[in-house]
Amino acid sequence: xxxxRNHAATAAFLAFTLAAAGSPSRAGAQSKSDVFxxxxxxxxxxxxxxxxRVELTLSGNFSLDDAFYQKYFAGLKAGYxxxxxxxxxxxxxxxFTRTTSSTVLCPSNAGCHEATxxxxxxxxxNMKAVYGLEGAWSPIYGKLNAFSEKVGHFDMxxxxxxxxxxxxxxxxxxxxxxxxxxxGEPPITRTWGGHLGLGARFFFTPWLALRAEVKDYLFRIEIxxxxxxxxxxxxxxxxxxxxxxxxxxxxPHP
Length: 254
Hints:
alpha+beta, Porin, eight-stranded antiparallel β-barrel, two-stranded antiparallel ribbon, 3 helices, 10 strands
């Protein structure tokens, strides 16, 4: 009867030894799998709130896909956020233009040369400034995990607005010939238009964010050499700026 007891005791001892040996292994496996545990605190809700705050943006604006004139504008925008999704802002952008490579002429009876200023007076695109009101809807708020160490916050918006566009008047070939004789320039005129666009903010602090936008401005102007009807123009702009939120801290939720 003693032999079975010895076998039972031996079996129990071996089971206990294997269990003890397996426990550190499981603990080690868990520590390896949880090596990043606790490094990034959980983030719940919208940490960077906009509701009830004023946003001031200083920006640089650059035109895209230009036929004749590349635009370089500096911009200022001031807006108010009614809630986390809807805002209204006023903006102004103005600057200078440069001619593109499309202004090089290559007639069949002569070599290639740059178009003269009086020839360029006859083509559209010489914008000088844009003044506008803009509404924005921001349905997307997200978080990015950067290198398993930092959480970046951003939002995305749909933009729409009405604009007053200032541009150098486009003149006919006859008017250009007259100005060439007198040494004058076409006047700056204005027209109403609108724009649609997409925007995004990347938050650094509760009061500072990087802002990036792409907009398509639409307006009608007269181009005498193309007929008497006004022609629809569309001008793409990209905008990068820094936004400052006032007050500097998030407003408490009611």
